[in-house]
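Morning F.,

Quick status update on the modeling queue. The single chain you submitted on Monday has been processed. Sequence for confirmation:
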Amino acid sequence: MLSKEIICIIPARKGSKGIKNKNLKKIKNKPLVQYSIDSAKKISNLVEICVSTDSTLIKKIVLKNKIKFYGLRPAKLSGDYAETKDVIKYELFKYEKIYKRKFKYILLLQPTTPIRNTNLLRKIIRIIKNNKKIDSVISVKDVGGNHPLRMKVFKKGLLKNYSGKKKEDMRPRQKLPKVFIRSGSFYLITRSSFIKYKSLVGKNCHGVILKGLESTNIDNILDLKYLEMKI
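Structure tokens below.
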């Protein structure tokens, strides 16, 4: 049996700033984390699945899905200020030590963006494997009306343009240049670029634009209710 080149990491800690026990909240009677686990299981022929958590309840869900589990995430990587890149590095090295080999790619699936197209996941894997110039693939979405040329910052109590421009840009949204923000649905990067740049976004990054439910990111209870209503 060929060794899988990709480690698929699903970060699902028990704490959350926006919603208590967010990753365990149910949408259509299914815990939020289960949606990302389901996506990973559909491509399990290509990836080794790692659910990174400090929650014994999430651990039970992982084991129920017959996914291997090698211990809870340490507390220092489970707080509100823990960075995802540090969690990825910890799990990557742990799994490589257990499997006695290095992975070639890292795929991150965040539970807060639960709706994914499995065919798209397979497509982005083909993209990074077939194009040696690309070292990462991430999902993005249009910022819409929240355009940086409309954004403001307070300086000494007065509003100033975030862009630094002195003149106000009053063009309608349709006339402004297209700007995109990371949607959080997936990050796929070569191991070498992740280690080199200490980031999930490499130097030569390919973007995939998502729309609709696939681009929905759950930050608060209203997002949760909206998604449940839509699906």
